[in-house]
Amino acid sequence: MSNSLEIFEIPIPEHPELDTPDVSIFKANLTKQILFLLEKDPTSLWNGLYRIDVAENKVKEIFSGIPDSSEVAHKLCALILERLIQKMQFRRKYSSCSDESL
Q1: Residue 34: is its pLDDT beyond 80?
Q2: DSSP 3-state of 9
Q3: Whose CA is closest to 77, among 92, 62, 93, 99?
Q4: pLDDT at residue 88 above 60?
């Protein structure tokens, strides 16, 4: 699996840090998929969050503080997007460093 969100079956926009229609569609689809997994297959959701490497303490904080599952889905979506952006920034930073040393 080359794509971190392959478990959620949603394509990742190329530049998720930008506020574009693609990102809005991505957020809506991801939130819908998270809500579905919350209700039907929470184990797959937890496995996906682990694979994406979302901070476990933040996830537990969301689950303990918010009773509404749709609000939980929105908060988890924000955490996932934040983590994906971090990963992309790290890749860009370190891939450019390694390119310069060649």
Answers
A1: yes
A2: coil
A3: 62
A4: yes
Closest CA to 35 of 72, 83, 7: 72
CA distances in angstroms from 6 to 36, 48, 52, 75, listed in the order given: 16, 9, 10, 20
pTM > 0.85: no
* Residue count of the chain: 102
User: Rounded distance, CA 55 to CA 48, Å?
Assistant: 12
Residue ranges covered by each domain of the chain: 6-10+19-100
Q: Does residue 46 or residue 11 have the better pLDDT?
A: 46
Mean pLDDT of 4-11: 56
Residue type, 41: D
- Residue 80 burial by Cβ neighbours in a 10 Å radius (0-12, 13-18, 19+): buried
